[in-house]
Specification:
A hairpin with a 5-residue loop joins strand 4 and strand 5 (92-95). 32% of the residues lie in helices and 36% in strands. The protein has a 5-stranded antiparallel beta sheet. The protein has helices at 3-21, 99-116, and strands spanning 26-30, 36-47, 50-58, 75-86, 92-95. It is an alpha+beta fold and 117 residues long.
Length: 117
């Protein structure tokens, strides 16, 4: 095998590794009654100095396949806007924004999608 072919194969393997790392983020949220609700991270975007995420509810028990598209748009009525904060180890934590933050995020979100139209 030539060096050129070996480099090409190594490049494809690295691309496959990166694609595997870009798995869908599933967030578990407990409601007031202690029930676990599952959300997928639909969109993450900055507003000012903070980061926010749009989380869309999914029924994780509806499907056993990790790579299927059956959860897309599944529970459009169950959407959360969450502020993303990072703990000491760099792991994200999703928290409720204040009313003021929520209004800023809503306005920024609407502006993003009105620009696309």
């Amino acid at each position: 095998m030539t060096d050129e072919k070996k480099d090409l194969i190594d490049g494809f393997e690295k691309i496959e590794e990166l694609e595997e790392m870009e798995e869908e983020q599933i967030i578990v949220v407990s409601d007031e009654e202690g029930n676990e609700l599952y959300y997928r991270e639909e969109l993450v975007f900055p507003v000012g100095d903070d980061t926010y995420a749009i989380l869309v509810g999914i029924d994780i028990e509806a499907c056993d396949h990790e790579d299927c598209d059956c959860h897309d748009g599944e529970d459009e009525e169950n959407i959360i806007i969450a502020k993303v904060e990072f703990d000491e180890s760099g792991e994200p934590a999703y928290v409720s924004p204040s009313d003021e933050e929520f209004e800023k995020v809503r306005a920024a979100y609407e502006a993003m999608f009105s620009e696309e139209e």
